[in-house]
Amino acid sequence: MRMGDNEQANIMDDESSRKSQVKIDTPFFCKTMQADMMVGRCIDLYVEANAFGFKDSVCFKCMQGMKIRQLLAHD
Questions:
Q1: What are the boundaries of each domain within the chain?
Q2: What is the mean pLDDT of residues 7-19?
């Protein structure tokens, strides 16, 4: 079940201003997985791929996930 556009956080808007509030429980639509998920789940999948050396993992290579991690680190 996909969240409505008004319910779903648009965390990719205005990245340069760093005003967007990105939290672990912020929902978003993952383009790579084609599914709704929380930022925390995205981070978990990346950390797992990195820790176990799954460098071919789609989560490890995901540009959307990289932007999310950068926003989270700056908040």
A1: 15-74
A2: 51
